[in-house]
Backbone:
């Protein structure tokens, strides 16, 4: 079994920054892609960003481009999401996930973290 544990959420003012981390552990993971998703109250879970195993390719939802940066450290089995210029509409529970390949579709990811709350005040 694979476990994903997230950290780094919290309350921040608009324009501020947060860095989310996600630690993967458990059975041998092999190569995998990281994905980040978020879900605001009353809304569907939405794609945020994804990164390939090598880290050379990254993909973002349009509204996150230029503000969010996804990265990874394979030696530590860690995934990261740096969020800058945060807006109140970024308020949501953020989830990390791992899957066999990069995708914006949540169903392509087999393992998920428990979620971490990010709240951006205006």
Residues:
């Amino acid at each position: 079994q694979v476990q994903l544990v997230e950290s780094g959420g919290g309350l921040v003012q608009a324009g501020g920054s947060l860095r989310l981390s996600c630690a993967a552990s458990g059975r041998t993971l092999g190569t995998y892609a990281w994905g980040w998703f978020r879900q605001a109250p009353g809304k569907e879970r939405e794609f945020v960003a994804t990164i390939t195993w090598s880290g050379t390719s990254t993909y973002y939802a349009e509204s996150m481009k230029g503000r969010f940066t996804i990265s990874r450290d394979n030696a530590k089995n860690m995934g990261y999401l740096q969020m800058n210029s945060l807006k109140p509409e970024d308020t949501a529970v953020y989830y990390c996930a791992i899957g066999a390949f990069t995708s914006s579709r949540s169903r392509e990811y087999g393992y998920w973290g428990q979620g971490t709350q990010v709240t951006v005040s205006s």
About this structure: The mean pLDDT is 96.
